[in-house]
From TrEMBL:
Membrane topology reported for the UniProt record: Peripheral membrane protein
Signal peptide as annotated in the record: 1-19
Gene Ontology cellular component terms for the protein in this record: extracellular region; lysosomal membrane
Domain of life: Eukaryota
Molecular-function annotations in GO: hydrolase activity
Stored Pfam families: Glyco_hydro_79n
Keywords, in A-Z order: Glycoprotein, Hydrolase, Lysosome, Membrane, Secreted, Signal
Function in brief: Endoglycosidase which is a cell surface and extracellular matrix-degrading enzyme. Cleaves heparan sulfate proteoglycans (HSPGs) into heparan sulfate side chains and core proteoglycans.
Protein name: Heparanase-like protein 2
Family of this protein: Belongs to the glycosyl hydrolase 79 family.
Subcellular location as annotated: Lysosome membrane; Secreted
Length: 539
C-alpha cells in the first residue's frame, strides 16, 4: 500500500516522468488604466496568541511563537521583517477575545492555560505591559506597521449556544489604548474582534450589536487620539464573510466609522486533508474564492463605500495549516495566486497567517529560518506596485497570470504561475497598444523593425537607451531537486538560504534579451519585470 501511494505521488507530481508538452499562450496587458489598487504595503503577516501546547492532528507546531512568548531577540526574526522595510504585522487570532490587558487590573495577570470550558479549550490570558513595551521597542526597531486586535467579547454574556449577548465593556481596552498613547507607541490600526461575525468560530455576536459597539470604539479612538497624529484606522470584523451580517454591520455603524472590512479565508480546507496538493494545483478550486472577493466588494459598494477591503487572515489550510505542505514550495502556488486575485478585487492589504507559528508560518517556528512562501512574499513586496493591470489570456487555465505597475520604477511586472505538471508554456506578451514585449524565435525581416518599434514606444530610463539592447528581468522560482514538498526554494537555479550572518539572500534576477523566447516550465513560478515598457495607466 505504501509503495502504491508513493508511486502515485511520483507519477502525479514529478514532471520528469512525463514527456514534456509545449503550448502557446498570448497575454494582452491593458496598460492604459489600472483596474484596482492595493496599499503600498500590501503584504502583511500575523502573529497569533496560541500557546506552545496548541495542537492539531497530534502535532503541536506552534512552539514559542505567540505575541506573549516569541523570542524578539532572535536575529533571524528582525532580519526577516527588516527585509520588507515596512512589513505590516497583525497581532491577533482566535484567543484575542480572551485577552485582558494589564492596566489598572484588580486581579492577577495570568497566562493562557488549558481549560475545557474555555473558548477553544483555553482559559483567559493577560498581556503584561512590560511585554507590550518590549513588543513596541521591537516594532520600532524593525519598521513594522502594527495592527492590534482588541478583545470584543469583554463584558458580554454567553448564552450557552455560541452566541454572546449584551454591550461590550470598553473599560479595559480604553485603558490599554490610553497607555499605548502615553508611551508614544505608533499603532497603524486597531481591529475589533476575531471571527465573531455571522455564525462565528467558537463564538458570535449579532451584527446590530457589533455595529453599535464599533460606533462606541470609534468615539474612544477619536477622543484619545485628539492630540495625537496619525490617528489609527479602525478595522472590523476579522471574520468570515457572510453577506447579510456584513451588510448589516455597515448599515448600523454608519459612514466613516469602519475604515476597512477585514475578512478571513481558508479556502483549502483542514490541514489534515490528504487532497491539499491537488486543491492547490487545481485552477477550478483556486477560482472558487473569487466569489467571496466579488461579493464583499459589492457589500462595500452598496452599504459602505467609505470602507476598503482587507484580508485580515489567510493561511490556506486551517487548524495550523498542512504539515509538509503549507511550509513547502507547493504552497506558493496557492499563496501567490491568491495575492494576485485579491488585488484584482481592490483588496488593500493581505495578511498571511502567520509570520511565525503553526505549519503555515513564513518562518519556521523552531529555527526562524524562512520557508519558501517567505521569499514569495518578499519578491511580491519588492516587485509588484500598487497599481493592478488587467491581463487577458487565451492560454490554458493552468497558466495563471497577474500584472501590476512595477514598484518604485517604470514599467510592468508580470507574475506567471504554471500549475501544469507537464506543459511548458511559450508566452507572447502584448499591450493594448499592440506593442509586443516578446516574439517567438522567428527568422524573418521583422525582427529589426520590432526592436525599432520598441525603442519608440517604451518609457526609457537614462539618456542612452536608444543605443542599448533591451532586456527583461526574470525571477524563476522552482523547488530544490524538483520536489514540490521541498522546504528549499530555488531562484534562477540557486538555493535561497540565509547567509552565515543570518541575513536574507540577495534576490537577483536573470536579464534576458527582450527578443529571446519567454517560457515557463511545468510546476514553476516566474516574476518578469519589463522596465522599459510604456505604462500610461501607472503615471
Amino acid at each position: 500500500m505504501g509503495f502504491s501511494i508513493s508511486l502515485f505521488i511520483l507519477l502525479a507530481f514529478s514532471p520528469a516522468i512525463f514527456a514534456q508538452n509545449s503550448d502557446d499562450a498570448r497575454l494582452v496587458i491593458d496598460t492604459n488604466a489600472t483596474v484596482a489598487e492595493t496599499d503600498d504595503n500590501y503584504i502583511c503577516a500575523t502573529i497569533d496568541w496560541w500557546p506552545h501546547d496548541k495542537c492539531n492532528y497530534n502535532r503541536c507546531p506552534w512552539e514559542f511563537s505567540s505575541v506573549i512568548n516569541l523570542d524578539l531577540s532572535h536575529p533571524f526574526l528582525a532580519n526577516a521583517i527588516q527585509a520588507f522595510k515596512n512589513l505590516r504585522l497583525r497581532l491577533g487570532g482566535s484567543l484575542q477575545d480572551q485577552v485582558i490587558y494589564d492596566v489598572n487590573l484588580k486581579s492577577p495577570c495570568k497566562q493562557f492555560g488549558k481549560e475545557k470550558s474555555g473558548l477553544f479549550g483555553f482559559s483567559k490570558g493577560c498581556l503584561h505591559m512590560k511585554r507590550w513595551d518590549e513588543l513596541n521597542k521591537f516594532f520600532k526597531a524593525t519598521g513594522a506597521l502594527v495592527t492590534f486586535g482588541l478583545n470584543a467579547l469583554h463584558g458580554r454574556n454567553h448564552d450557552g449556544r455560541g452566541a454572546w449577548q449584551g454591550d461590550w465593556n470598553s473599560s479595559n481596552a480604553r485603558d490599554f489604548i490610553k497607555y499605548t498613547i502615553s508611551k508614544d507607541y505608533r499603532i497603524d490600526s486597531w481591529e475589533f474582534g476575531n471571527e465573531l461575525s455571522g455564525k462565528g468560530i467558537g463564538a458570535s455576536v449579532g451584527a446590530e450589536q457589533y455595529g453599535k459597539d464599533l460606533v462606541h470604539l470609534n468615539s474612544i479612538i477619536d477622543e484619545l487620539y485628539k492630540n495625537f497624529r496619525p490617528k489609527p484606522l479602525l478595522l472590523a470584523p476579522g471574520g468570515f464573510y457572510e453577506k447579510l451580517w456584513f451588510d448589516k454591520l455597515l448599515q448600523v455603524s454608519g459612514p466613516h466609522v469602519v475604515n476597512a472590512l477585514t475578512h478571513h479565508i481558508y479556502n483549502l480546507g483542514p490541514g489534515n486533508d490528504n487532497n491539499l496538493i491537488n486543491k492547490i494545483l487545481n485552477p477550478d478550486h483556486l477560482n472558487k474564492v473569487s466569489a467571496t472577493f466579488g461579493n464583499l466588494s459589492l457589500s462595500i459598494q452598496m452599504n459602505g463605500p467609505w470602507a476598503s477591503a482587507w484580508v485580515g487572515e489567510s493561511g490556506g489550510a486551517y487548524n495550523s495549516g498542512g504539515p509538509n505542505v503549507s511550509d513547502t514550495f507547493v504552497n506558493s502556488f496557492w499563496y501567490l495566486d491568491q495575492l494576485g486575485m485579491a488585488a484584482k478585487y481592490n483588496t488593500k492589504v493581505y495578511c498571511r497567517q502567520t509570520l511565525i507559528g503553526g505549519n503555515y508560518g513564513l518562518l519556521n517556528a523552531s529555527t526562524f529560518v524562512p520557508n519558501p512562501d517567505y521569499y514569495s512574499a518578499l519578491l511580491w513586496h519588492r516587485l509588484m506596485g500598487k497599481g493592478v493591470l488587467d491581463v487577458n489570456s487565451n492560454g490554458s487555465p493552468y497558466l495563471r497570470s497577474y500584472a501590476h505597475c512595477s514598484k518604485q520604477r517604470a514599467g510592468v511586472t508580470l507574475l506567471l504561475i504554471n500549475l501544469s505538471n507537464q506543459t511548458t508554456f511559450n508566452v507572447d506578451v502584448k499591450s493594448t497598444s499592440n506593442t509586443e514585449l516578446h516574439l517567438k524565435q522567428k527568422v524573418d525581416t521583422r525582427e529589426k523593425s520590432f526592436a525599432h518599434g520598441l525603442k519608440k514606444s517604451f518609457s526609457w530610463v537614462g539618456n542612452k537607451a536608444s543605443d542599448e539592447r533591451l532586456f527583461r528581468e526574470e525571477y524563476h522560482l522552482t523547488p530544490e531537486a524538483g520536489e514540490l514538498q521541498s522546504k528549499i526554494m530555488l531562484l534562477n537555479g540557486q538555493a535561497l538560504q540565509l547567509t552565515e550572518r543570518g541575513d536574507i539572500s540577495t534576490l537577483s534576477p536573470v536579464r534576458r534579451d527582450i527578443n529571446s523566447p519567454l517560457t515557463i516550465d511545468p510546476l514553476s513560478i516566474k516574476f518578469i519585470v519589463f522596465p522599459n515598457f510604456s505604462t500610461p495607466g501607472c503615471e
